[in-house]
């Protein structure tokens, strides 16, 4: 069985159906309720306040950052703070420029257009978007073939909120047309604790300070993961205890789901374990490592490694994958000693 066939990972930062069902209820409704991201919040607050004072639409806003950090939530907050309606669509949903023209030409004055996964929009739609953002104009093409004519249509002032996990993939002309870009960072444990207390309150779950800290430490800096782990631990607390989430209950519950104290799951630990035990910490090539854990190359590279690298447990070097001293410590293993006949962990 490969990873693709297995259950979705508990520590995946993308939303699954279960997340989507509860996320609406857990989303902060205004900037004051939004936890963390101090810089983005302060800057965005200024942008929105200034627009409100002028009585016009806010500048276009680009939000970039990893999945689950609050981009969609902030987009909705922009609309709420401006008391404006919001239209929600995404790059992959707009494959033809005509799809975008239809949306743009029906915008009301001051409306917020939220374009998720902006980097996945088609090129012709992108070009139409530049013009709409800059000149408040779209060319609507009427007819087909040589007889087709472009009818310019004026748009009311609107605010585009774009979200992307890959800001680097956006063509510079598109990026430049945003008045404000917010880079979302991973959350500190204390911030995730606040997210967890807030969510617990909304879900009517009792969690103490140490319980929230235990879940926060395993949430990979990501509110979406924190909320998901909270729901699993709530189930455990309800079935196996009196419903109250303490440190011990959180730790035992997440042990059942194989999410360790640093947020690594079974796949992460399999990759790290193979690197340490079979290859003495590397360097070893990606393909060799993937075969050793019985996974596809892509799964190891795209699913497991980014977090291991971020956590400083694994390094990608020109000679291959290398474990760091922290990796040995995390799995409770002793690195091979220099001169002991085994290759030393390279740094
Ligand atoms: N700063 C935050 N404060 C409180 N909850 C948050 C925050 N950021 C994200 N969340 C929660 O995490 C979930 C995922 O956020 P979302 O905005 O959908 O992330 P993204 O669009 O970046 O993938 C939401 O349900 C929301 O409840
Ligand atoms: Mg989103």
UniProtKB/TrEMBL annotation:
DNA binds at residues 297, 316, 321. It comes from Streptomyces synnematoformans. Has 3 domains, the large (RuvB-L) and small ATPase (RuvB-S) domains and the C-terminal head (RuvB-H) domain. The head domain binds DNA, while the ATPase domains jointly bind ATP, ADP or are empty depending on the state of the subunit in the translocation cycle. During a single DNA translocation step the structure of each domain remains the same, but their relative positions change. CDD domains: AAA. It catalyses: ATP + H2O = ADP + phosphate + H(+). The lineage of its organism: Bacteria, Bacillati, Actinomycetota, Actinomycetes, Kitasatosporales. Its EC number is 3.6.4.-. Keywords: ATP-binding, Cytoplasm, DNA damage, DNA recombination, DNA repair, DNA-binding, Helicase, Hydrolase, Nucleotide-binding. ATP binds at residues 26-27, 68, 71-73, 177, 187, 224. Belongs to the RuvB family. Pfam families: AAA_lid_4, RuvB_N, WHD_RuvB. Its main location: cytoplasm. Homohexamer. Forms an RuvA(8)-RuvB(12)-Holliday junction (HJ) complex. HJ DNA is sandwiched between 2 RuvA tetramers; dsDNA enters through RuvA and exits via RuvB. An RuvB hexamer assembles on each DNA strand where it exits the tetramer. Each RuvB hexamer is contacted by two RuvA subunits (via domain III) on 2 adjacent RuvB subunits; this complex drives branch migration. In the full resolvosome a probable DNA-RuvA(4)-RuvB(12)-RuvC(2) complex forms which resolves the HJ. GO terms for molecular function: helicase activity. The RuvA-RuvB-RuvC complex processes Holliday junction (HJ) DNA during genetic recombination and DNA repair, while the RuvA-RuvB complex plays an important role in the rescue of blocked DNA replication forks via replication fork reversal (RFR). RuvA specifically binds to HJ cruciform DNA, conferring on it an open structure. The RuvB hexamer acts as an ATP-dependent pump, pulling dsDNA into and through the RuvAB complex. RuvB forms 2 homohexamers on either side of HJ DNA bound by 1 or 2 RuvA tetramers; 4 subunits per hexamer contact DNA at a time. Residues 261-347 are annotated as: Head domain (RuvB-H). It is found in: Cytoplasm. Residues 188-258 are annotated as: Small ATPAse domain (RuvB-S). Residues 57-190 form the AAA+ ATPase domain. Mg(2+) binds at residue 72. This is Holliday junction branch migration complex subunit RuvB.
